[in-house]
Amino acid sequence: MFDIWGVKFTDNQIGGYTAGNGNVLQVYVNGKQVSDPVNTKLKAHDVVIVGYGKPGSFPTSRSFSWTTGPGAGL
User: In this predicted model, what pLDDT tens digit does every residue of 7-57 receive, in sequence order?
Assistant: First the structure.
């Protein structure tokens, strides 16, 4: 998921942030926590949240309205 940017990403580390000392690393795709974020295959318009910190200190879902057709997203 983050290899393209050269960011170290494991089940408990993203970049310089490693889970421990009360902090967690959790990944949510479309509002559902994934157990293997490193190997999760993403699809167009998947909403991904990578949370690091104290449990409950970050959102687990977001919603967006996607449009289609010419000029979508502009």
Answer: 898 989 999 999 999 999 999 999 999 999 888 999 988 989 999 999 989
Q: Is 37 exposed, middle or buried (0-12, 13-18, 19+ CB in 10 A)?
A: buried
The answer to whether 19 touches 47, Cβ cutoff 8 Å, is no
Q: What is the pTM of this model?
A: 0.76
Residue 52 tokens read as 């690091």
Q: How far is CA 55 from CA 24, 51, 61, 73, in A?
A: 6, 9, 14, 33
